[in-house]
What we know:
Elements lengths: L10 H8 L19 E7 L7 H11 L9 E5 L4 H11 L5 E4 L10 H17 L7 E5 L3 E3 L3 H14 L3 E5 L16 E4 L6 E5 H7 L8 H5 L14 E5 L4 E3 L13 H4 L22 H14 L1 E2 L15 E5 L3 H8 L12 E6 L2 E7 L47
Parallel strand pairs: 1-2, 1-4, 2-3, 6-9, 11-12, 12-14
Antiparallel strand pairs: 4-8, 5-10, 6-8, 7-9, 13-14
Amino acid sequence: VGGAQAPGKGALERRGARMKEAEPKEGEYYRPWDAKKVALVVMAYCDHETTHELAKTVDSLRGLGKAAMHDIFVSQEGADSRLNTYVVGLQSKGVLKHIVHDTVNPRGMHMRERTALHQHKAMEGIFNDPQGYTHAIFFEDSVELAPDTLDFFAAATPIMDKDPSVWCVSGSNELGYGEMDWEETKMMRTSHFSGIVWMARKELWEELKPAWPSSSWIEWMNEGKDGGASARDGRSCIIPEVSRVKRVGNAVYSAEEAKYEQYLSRVKLATAPVDHNMFGDLSYLIKQNYDNALAVQVKKARILGSTRSEVPFNSYGPFLIPYKGSDYAMFARKYHLPNEIVDYEGLTVIKLQSNLIYLVSEDSQWLLLRPERTKGSHPDRNLHGAHPHGPHDPHFGFQAGGPHHRDR
Length: 408
């Protein structure tokens, strides 16, 4: 585990070169994955008084019919007799594999250090396994999974493999509240990384490993939230509109996310047994397609003056609400949202009484699409995404009137 550093400037090009995968067959919207190359990894910690928290995730995972097609691991941060007994009992039934890491006295470490070290060792162990896993899905304990969790990940995998601007797939939408009436078969892009249940490619681990932090790995993955270097490198995560995972207890690392608990309890868990081909054509998630479609919505949205404005629920949206800094917290309190911003490149999408609302940061390039809200344009950009000093970046830009990817 080393100090946090930004990935190299050529990382995007190298990832793009590695991600030339086979296209889906005609009539199919997905490239079926090799389940034996996709490891399922449950993260187990030594703090709990019982194995109840771990059992919640393991039982929920085993309840997924397609889980038997994968290798299931329990990654245990260090020696613990209670965990050993529980996992060995499962192993005797041929259910899963057990990795016990050699961390000495993990309880004597700060929780932020423990989780960073455990995640490092888990990824290192899985992606160095002789089985040659190409992908891994990591599960925190104390979670319940939707019936189609693995179908969701299988459907989203080709987008992650094809689009180098996507670095992970997450099963959690932390704004996926039941009252927002999201669609179970739809997916979204986000800049936010939750770390609850998520999938990574082996190539991502090879990229991040040299710079892996000794503490606060989730903050690091969320790009400089503590003023550190960028791990995300401008990339996005694919998430479902309706979550495929729901917290049902206090995960070990949740002390730093305690403020989220009241909000996470409102997150809706998908219930329909959806086959992954029923998610349909997901090409709308490719960055250029997604950004172009979102740009159209931003252009036509009705602008409300600020976060202090009342949303006119007696009329139809979408509505666009610009905000500055702490103004977001004011809006969040008013509409019972978490204070931490869960956005896509400075734009947060929510639904209130069936109306789409776009909360847009004042320093986001999205507002260049609404010149009536900007105080001046950037001298090197225009509203059509053209750059006067060089060619348009095919990975990080819009066509048809969209803004450039934000500078990092």
